[in-house]
Design goal:
five-stranded antiparallel β-sheet; binds the ligand Nc1nc2c(c(=O)[nH]1)N[C@H]1C(S)=C(S)[C@@H](COP(=O)(O)O)O[C@H]1N2; binds molybdenum atom
C-alpha cells in the first residue's frame, strides 16, 4: 500500500524548475523509512509536519520543497493517459432514466458556475482562494433523471484506479461541480484535466481527477482512500480527526 503522498507530475513541471524530490527531502530529515509508515494517520501526521514547516518559513526557501506555495501533484498510478478535447468522454449511468455520454464540447455548452474557495488536503496543506469553474453535478443528475432507488453517486477515473463517492444529497449541493477550469485556466493534465470533480466543502481527496464516469448507485461505495481509512463523509474541519477551518 502506498499512502497518499505527492509526487512530481510526469509533465507540466512547475515554472521555477523541478522541486526537490520527496525522497530527497525525507532523507534529509532522517525520515527515510517512510515505507514502514503505512497507516494513513501516521502519514497525515508526517505530511502535516512538512506542511507546517513550509507555512512558518520566513525565508521563502521552502518554495524549493515539494510542498512549497500551493498544490501538490497526486496520482495513485504511475502514469495516466492523456485525453484531448476530442477524445475525452464522461459517462453518466447507473440508476438513471437516460444514461448519457458527454463530450467536452457538450459540457462546455452547459451553464458554467464559478466558485472561489480555499482548497484543503487532509494531509494539512491548504491553498487559499482558488477558482474552479464547471457544470453543477446537480444539473447533470437532473438531465439524466435519477431513478427513485438512487441514493448515492460513484465516480470513476480514466487513470483506471481512483474512485470516489458521495451521497445523492451531497452530490446535489450547489458547490459540487464537474470542473472544466481551475485557477481560471482549462484544467491541465496534472490537475486532472480535462475534467475533474470539485467538492468544495470536503477534503480535496473527494475531488477526483481525470473524471470519466458518474454512476448513480443504491448505496455509497467507499472510494479509493476511504477503503484505506479516510472518512467517507469528508467535511473539512469535521472529519478525519482534523479541525481545519471550513472551506464552504
Ligand atoms: N484520480 C485521482 N484523483 C485524485 C487523487 C488521485 O491520486 N487520483 N488524489 C486526491 C488528493 S488526496 C488530492 S489532495 C487532490 C490533489 O489534486 P492536485 O494533484 O490537483 O493538487 O486530488 C485528489 N484527487
Ligand atoms: Mo489529499
Amino acid at each position: 500500500m502506498n499512502p497518499e503522498q505527492p509526487a512530481d507530475p510526469p509533465d507540466e513541471p512547475p515554472a521555477q524548475g523541478k522541486p526537490i524530490g520527496r525522497r530527497v527531502l525525507l532523507g534529509t530529515l532522517g525520515l527515510g523509512a517512510l515505507g514502514v509508515l503505512t497507516a494513513p494517520t501516521l502519514q497525515r501526521g508526517l505530511e502535516a509536519f512538512l506542511g507546517n514547516a513550509a507555512d512558518k518559513d520566513p525565508t521563502g526557501l521552502t518554495g524549493l520543497l515539494p510542498n512549497g506555495g500551493g498544490f501538490r501533484y497526486y496520482s495513485v498510478t504511475s502514469s495516466v493517459p492523456h485525453k484531448s478535447a476530442e477524445d475525452y468522454r464522461l459517462t453518466v449511468d447507473g440508476l438513471v432514466h437516460r444514461p448519457t455520454t458527454y463530450t467536452l464540447a457538450d459540457l462546455r455548452k452547459l451553464p458554467q458556475t464559478r466558485l472561489v474557495k480555499d482548497v484543503q488536503c487532509v494531509t494539512g496543506w491548504r491553498v487559499p482562494g482558488t477558482p474552479f469553474e464547471g457544470v453543477r453535478l446537480s444539473r447533470l443528475l437532473d438531465a439524466v433523471g435519477v431513478r427513485p432507488q438512487g441514493r448515492a453517486v460513484r465516480f470513476t477515473c480514466f487513470d483506471g484506479a481512483y474512485t470516489e463517492s458521495l451521497t445523492l444529497d451531497q452530490a446535489r449541493r450547489s458547490d459540487v461541480l464537474v470542473a472544466l477550469r481551475m485557477q481560471d485556466k482549462d484544467l491541465g493534465h496534472s490537475h486532472g484535466g480535462p475534467v475533474r470533480l470539485y467538492v468544495a466543502p470536503m477534503y480535496f481527496y473527494k475531488s477526483a481527477k481525470w473524471l470519466s464516469g458518474i454512476t448513480v448507485t443504491d448505496e455509497v461505495r467507499p472510494g479509493y482512500w476511504e477503503e484505506r481509512g479516510y472518512d467517507v463523509d469528508a467535511w473539512v474541519g469535521r472529519s478525519n480527526g482534523r479541525d481545519d477551518a471550513p472551506t464552504s
